[in-house]
Structure formats: structure tokens, C-alpha cells
Specification:
The structure holds 3 protein chains of 3 kinds.
Chain A (H helix, E strand, L loop, with lengths): L2 H9 L9 H11 L5 E4 L5 E5 L8 E7 L4 E7 L5 E6 L11 E5 L3 E7 L8 H4 L9 E3 L4 H7 L5 E4 L4 E2 L4 E4 L2 H17 L7 E7 L7 H10 L3 E9 L18 E4 L5 H13 L5 E4 L7 H6 L7 E8 L7 E4 H17 L5 H4 L3
Parallel strand pairs in A: 3-12, 3-13, 13-16, 14-15
Antiparallel strand pairs in A: 1-2, 2-12, 4-5, 4-9, 6-7, 6-9, 7-8, 10-11, 11-17, 14-16
Helix pairs in contact in A: 1-5, 5-9, 7-9
Chain B lengths: L4 H9 L8 H11 L5 E4 L5 E5 L5 E7 L4 E7 L5 E6 L4 H4 L3 E4 L4 E6 L13 E4 L5 H7 L5 E4 L4 E2 L3 E4 L2 H16 L6 E7 L7 H10 L3 E8 L18 E6 L7 H14 L3 E5 L7 H4 L8 E9 L6 E4 H16 L3
Parallel strand pairs in B: 3-12, 3-13, 13-16, 14-15
Antiparallel strand pairs in B: 1-2, 2-12, 4-5, 4-9, 6-7, 6-9, 7-8, 10-11, 11-17, 14-16, 16-17
Chain C lengths: L1 H7 L8 H11 L5 E4 L5 E5 L9 E6 L4 E7 L5 E6 L10 E5 L4 E5 L23 E2 L5 H7 L5 E4 L4 E3 L3 E4 L2 H15 L6 E6 L9 H8 L3 E10 L19 E3 L9 H13 L5 E3 L8 H4 L7 E10 L6 E4 H20 L3
Parallel strand pairs in C: 3-12, 3-13, 13-16, 14-15
Antiparallel strand pairs in C: 1-2, 2-12, 4-5, 4-9, 6-7, 6-9, 7-8, 10-11, 11-17, 14-16
Helix pairs in contact in C: 1-4, 4-8
The chains are: A alpha+beta, B alpha+beta, C alpha+beta.
Chain lengths: 350, 330, 340
Amino acid sequence: MDKYEFLELLTNGHGVSGFEYTLSKAVIDAFTPLSDTVKVDRMGNVIAHKKGTGNGAVKIMMAAHLDEIGFMVKYIEDNGFIRFTTIGGIDPRTTVGQEVWVHGEETILGVVGSKPPHLQDSKEQEEAIKLEDMIIDTGFSKDKLQEIVSIGDTITIKRNTMKLLNNKVAGKAMDDRAGVAALLEALKELQSINHYADVYMVATVQEEVSMTGAFTSTYHIQPDVGIAVDVGFGNTPELDKADSLEMGKGPGITIGGNVHPGLMKRLFDVGKKNGIPCQKDVAPGPTGTDARAMQITREGIPALVVSIPLRYMHTSVELLDLEDVHHTARLLAQFTNSLKEGELEGLLCF
Amino acid sequence: MAFNSELLRKLVTVYGPSSREHLIRDMISEEIKDHVDELYTDALGNLIAHKKGPGKKIMISAHMDQIGLIVTDIDKDGFVRFGNIGGISPAVTFSQRVIFENNTIGAVYSEPVDDLSKLKLEDMFIDIGAKSKEEAESMVSIGDICVYHAEYSENSNVVFTPYLDDRVGCFVAVEALKSIQKPENDLYFVFSVQEEVGLRGAKTAAYGVDPDFGLAIDVTTHGDTPKAKRFAVGLHKGAAIKVKDNSVISHPLVRERLVHLAQEKGIPYQMEVLEFGGTDSGAIHMNKSGVPSGVISIPTRYVHSTVEMASKEDITNCIALLKAYLEERL
Amino acid sequence: MLLKRLTEASGASGNEKEVRDIIVEEIRPFVDSVRIDGIGNVIAYKSGKSPAAGRIMVTAHMDEVGLMIKDIDSTGLLKFLTVGGIDKRVLVSKAVVVGKGKIKGVIGSKPIHLQKRNEWTKVLDINELYIDIGASSKDEAEKLISIGDYAVFDTKYEEFGEGRIKAKALDNRVGCAVLVELLKSSLETEIYGVFTVMEEVGLVGAGPAAFTVEPDVAIILEGTVCYEMPDMDSHQIPTVLGNGPAISLVDRSTLYDSNFRRRIVETAERNSIKYQFRKTAMGGNDSGKIHTSKSGCITTAISVPTRYIHSPLSVISRDDYDNTLALVKALVSDLEKEAL
């Protein structure tokens, strides 16, 4: 399965935070032939372990989160309309007029309805519609609906991943299934590398709400180095160049407090040596990635953050350049390759 | 099971704001000591009651602490200024009676405000009826914490009183604990501290207990009063099984099992999706390598007011559901 | 002079190296062991003449609030982000030093002559501010500065007025100085001295440090808010300069144990050391992560009142500093005799 096919399989799948198990099988199936062991832990994290030559003396954990943002049924009106809440940070303005899947006993189609312009005064039209004023219309009456759907059922956006021009793809949940795809590709590249360190590829759960997956899998694995593979803001005209990453120019490597300076320098060096394009990404404190959790677990874990440039984050048309996924995977594999026996202690010195 | 009003009344009345839970801890210890194998307190003051059993380790958590007001200053005329312990609403607190650990009683009022909707805690003060600063200082000290002082009331349907949050959770846990004769699982009933200020007790208790499963028992809000915000939970409709709140997404293993048990045993239940708020399971599920956790909620109107109201039927059904979950080998 | 060296060092959150090096150099001859953990915390162990009844940890965070360079524009001006809670209104028209080379720069703004009347009351957003190091081109700037470099305020340590000290970063170099002096003094029993990283951006270092040390009791040393203006009511004043070390009651991170607090007050009174209570519930400190680490522990926060924290300059009273050190010494000595 090539990286686009795997990415498409994941992003067309449906698993909001706390409900990622529908995607576990796809991840397990893809990682198993490339790893020594693959397992799913109590919280749903999928952990693939590939041994190095060092007998477990050094452990690198790479994490990309499996969960997507979405919605949940919170109330069913008398006329059958569904009231819903968000799981993770969805901009409610992107939701109006959207088609959705409601995952009940069966998965049924719904539409996020809105008031027609004819019935609104001009002032109303200048204000964003609030989530609590929106409804999902499934076409069912309350009685019929309640046979299929319960309070607490999850709802995801109906969006098929699509290929655009120039290696670009767009769809939902690229954040952070693109990261998971990068992990898979890195694992592929590691098959032909005699790396010293043990590698743990983890598809984490619940990053979008609490980072529970990162905290718990890191606690369990106890890595020496933790790398979060997530997405960063891809540049568009209204964004300051300094606040975003260029598309197609490789992953952003974070510089800042969440990241170990010695490791970060090594990562940039690896990029340079191997001709892998990389960009600088500045963040003054804990980042909004699994690295925030990894860094403060147990006695503290030296961490890194690598970000795939992504436009329109947290919408259903998240857009990225497949070349960036490729560059990210190469960077991760070559970083692992670069860590020779006995080197880590010196790298981590403050 | 007859509704044990007397026990509930005692539980909600004992002084125990966050960080000062010693009196309620003593009371609960007395109540349960003959029904447990081990009883101990940890560094932050959590009360941990162990009922030994085979099978998996389940941590059941109900928090003992109450919201309250902490004295930060006594002014030159003996008026007492305060900060909040937990979620204190200025509107609810205005003109309430409060009581300190030493039984000093005060009245909460405010500097004149033109608009009651602009009421802030910094404009409010506690009047303990002292004639001078010196007299006030002999009655209360900076750092003392007071709680709301109002009566427990009930009728055949409901109870209403301050501090159902979460003394009714403690009640449910105590009743379940006492009624389980031979545990099928290894049960740790934790009466936790400092939940109201950030689930702090549950975090450290979970680390010490190291459970396989977690279940918090707490109150949840309501959607069944006139013009209430859309919320699918209401009084007299059964035990609420939480799907999510702001601190946790219930693990399907726990949530689905609770639903299954409720259906099987004919216990009325309702599903709960809360858009804000948190419970001890928020801390428990993130412990160490992760703990599948859920929550049984007691539907409660007017949470964090002095007239928190819950249905006796619902409370009884929560006890039944908790028992059912604990009594089947996991 | 220790406090001078510490406050003039550059140590924004995530970039504490210069401060850490000074501290390690100062304490090494006086402690049994000192090591730096995986994320930059300094963990020192000092055995005394006898083992303690419980494990005591005394801690102070090394980092200060500052700025981080995010971009060098086409003309050589530096765009930046804030690191930690800086009120953006204090930034305009200040001097800073940037990067390892401590390149001098200024944060300028549009002259008042060229502003419209209605602009005078507008707060300048970070995006409208830049640091000017005098470079005439982007290339020239790039030779001296890299993206990701940190900048701190260029403020000299000075003693002024009646026993007052003015410096940057007194939050929390005062805490660090007190802890260094504690570790250099002769103690009856063992303690762990921990200097944490990145407190200002989310109490980052404290949790891992506590996980490692496993304290039974922890004393957190801080520089805390001190704000007294005429017409303020007594309950609105968090601490008073000159009234001694401030003992915390409650803040966003912790509800401090009242029994322990009573003990600290007794210690202060027995030793005739001035003290006050920190009267606000706002703010937070490393205690938040320490008291809930593993199975939990008892903590207190003892702070030197510091005027104008999180701005280019802050002010403390020499007296308060001395009394804070005296109180901590007496408390540690007390704690060995009788565990909590």
C-alpha cells in the first residue's frame, strides 16, 4: 500500500477522540509486517515496536495522533432534529451546510441545517452562527431516529479525501493521520537501516482533547527521546510568513522550550546531511502536540516536534503536499540512523 | 432498599471544604470501618477503603470536599474579605449564611452595586457581627475557610440542600460499599479530596491505588427546568451514565458495560453528554499507563447553589447500578 | 554579588543555560551531588549531619519571562513572540539584549508626532512591534541573530532608595539566590535543592523534578506580586514591600495545607522573623505540579514581595530578602526536628 493509499484509508475512516478503535485495525495491519510487535494498549494507543541493535539501551518513541475532531449527539428534539456538541477544537463556522455521518447502531447521513437568508435581517447575517443554534437533520422522526441513534453517539464530517494538483491532497483528519502515514513510511525506510536504537511508533489517542494517549503510552514505554509528529500551519496569503510553514519545503522543526536543544540541532544536521528540506518553527513553550505530554511524563523526556505543513487546519478540507509527508518520514528514519551507540548522553548534555 | 435520609443528611452537613476534609473523613471512616478490610489516608488526605476481592482492581471515587470561601483579609472595621475555593457564584453567595469550622456564622453581603448582574466576589464581604477588627480576629483568622450554611430539606420525591455535590456521591458509594458482602473484584473506594479545585486528590489517589478500572460518582446538571439549556439529563429518569465531559471521554468498556447492566437489571438510566465540567475520572483515566474509566452521575438541579436538588429514585438507582457494576467479575 | 550576577544573566523560559551554569558553579562545592536532568532541571542533594524524618525539597525556578525572535524581516528588523506572561504594553520603547552574543537592541514605535489623536489610546499589538539592532540589511542581522534566539530586557542591577533593589527577573532570581545561599550554609540535615526550568510557561520542569525526587514536603521559593497604590483597600493589596516573606494561602495551582502554614507562622514568630500572608488567590507556581506528583505531598510557597514583576524592571526590599532567607533556614531546621 503506498503512502497515499494508507493516508486515504485513514482519513476516510471515522474516529473522533475517544472513539479511535474503528481505525486500529488499519494501523495494526499496516505496521505489523514492518515491526517486531504491534499491540493496542488499554486506552487504544497502537504501539509498534521495531528493535534496534542496541538491545533496548536507547528507545526512541515517535507519536502521531489517530483521533480526529468531530461532534457528538447531545440531545434529540421532539421533531427529530439532533443537537450536537464538538469533540476537539472545531470552528463552528465551518460546520454550517456540511454533510455529516451520524454513527449510531447504523451510520446514517445528516445535514447541518441553517436558517435561510430570506428570514434573516442584515444584522443577523453579520454574526457567526452559534453552535447551540445549529441542528443536524437526518430526515427521521424522533421515534424512528431513537431506534438508531442515542445520546453520546459520535458524528464525523462526510468528506472524501481527494487528490489535487501538484502532489497536493485534501480531506478531513489530515491532522494528524498524515503524521501516522509519515510514521509508516519512516518505518518502511528503517527496514533497510541497521539502527542502534529501538523505535516505538505510536498512533496515540485523544490528543485533540486531553493528550491522554501521549501521557499514558509515554509512561508505559519510558523512551529516552520522544518525537511528536504532527501538523503545522501551512502558509496562505492572510498569514504572516513568520507564523507559518511553506508548502512543499519539508517539515517544520520546532525550536523552543518544548524541545531539547541538543536533539533539535542534531535533527537539523541530519536534514542538511541527507538533503532533506526542513524549516524552522518557533514556539516559546509547551506546544499543542503530543510533545507537551511527553516532555513532562515521569522524570521528564527530551522531546522533539516535527510538523507537516498543513493548510486550513481543523476544517474538513485540510490540505497538504505529499512530498512533505515523504520528507518528514525520511527525516525521522535518518535521525534514528544517526544515533550511534554511546552518542545520546553527549547530545543530551546541557 | 429504603432511602437512608438520615445518612444523607449527616453527610451533607459535616464541614469539609477543599483542603480541610478531616471532619468529613472522620465521619465517613466511622460509617464504613466495619465493612472494609483496610482503611487508610494518603498524603493529601484522601480516604481509601479497600474491600479485598479477586479479579480486577476497581477504584471508585466520590469526592468529600465542598466549595467554600477562604478568608484573605480582615479589614479595619472587622469585615471579612475572601477568595473562592472552587466554583463560587457571586449571585448564589450574595445574602447567604456561611459557617466556619469553629461554628462562627456570618452573612455574606456586598458593597453597594448599581447592577446586581455586575456582582463580583471582590466587592463582597462576610459580616460576622464583630464590633471591631480585634474582635473579628478572635473569631476567624486569615486562611480560614467557610461553607454555605443552609438546611437539608426533603419530600417524598426529592432532597434539596447545599452540597449534594458531592456528598450524595459519597452517600451512593457508602451505601454500595456496605451492601456488598463478598466482592467479586478488588475494590478501592476512594473518598477523595480537592476535586473542586482541580481533581487533585483523585490524581494522587489513583497513583497510589494503581487501578485497572476507574469509576467516579458525582453529580451532573439538568436540562429539565423551564428554558434550561439543551441537556438530555433530568430528574426522575434514572442514573446518568456519562459519555463525556470536559475532563474525560468515558472508556467504551466501562460505559457500555454500565448500559448493558442497567438494561439487564431493569435499572432506569439516561445517557449524559456534558459540555463543560469535570470529575475525578478526569484524573484517574490518565494515571500511569492509562485506566479505562467512566462515571455514574446523579442528576442534580442547581449545582453549586444552596438548593441542589436530586431525585430519591435517581439516587437509589445510582446505588443499584454501582452495585451491579462492582458485583460482576470483570 | 550573587543576586546581581543572577539577575543580569539571560534565562528566558526554555533557555536557562546561563543562569543554570552560575547556580551549579556556586553550589557544587557545598553539596554532595548535583546533576541536570533530561529537560534542564538542576537537582542537588546535600546531606546534613543526620538523615531527615521526611524528604524535604526546596525549589526555585530559574527562568524569567522574555521574548523569542520569530523572524528577521527584509530590512533587518526582528519580529518576536513573548515567552511567558508579559503584558505587551510594557514592551514599547525598551532596550533588550538578544541571543548568546547579547546583541543590544531597542523596541521602537511610531513617533507621537506622526500619530493620529485616536492612536494614542490604542494598545500596540506584538505584531506592530519589532526589535531594532541597528542592522542595515537582513543579511547583516542574520550574521548575528538566528530565528529562535531569545531576548531579555537590558536592565542593570542597582541598589537604590532605602534598602531597595532594582533589577530584571527578580521573579525568580530572588528565589534562586535564597536557595543557593541555603545550600551553601551549614544544615543539620539532608535536603534536595531543585532549580526548575520553564515555570513561566506552564510549570513544565516541576512535575518531572518532583517525580524524580519524591518529596514528602516541598518549599517553593518565589518572587511574587506586590502592588500597593493609594486608594486601594487592604484586601486588594496582595503583599506589602517591607512586611517580610509572604506565605501563600491559596492560588490557582494549590490550596496550601493549613497545618503546615500554622507551623511556618510559629517558626517565624519563635525566631522573631517578620512575615505576611499573600492575600490574593491569583497566580500559580511550581507547587501546583509538585503537590500532586505521584502520591502527593505537602507544600508551601514562601515569596519575596516583588513590585512590577513580568516587566523590564522589578523592585524588592533588601530586608524582605534577608527575612525570607532567615525564615527558610529556620523552617528547614524545624522540619528535621519534627516531621509533618
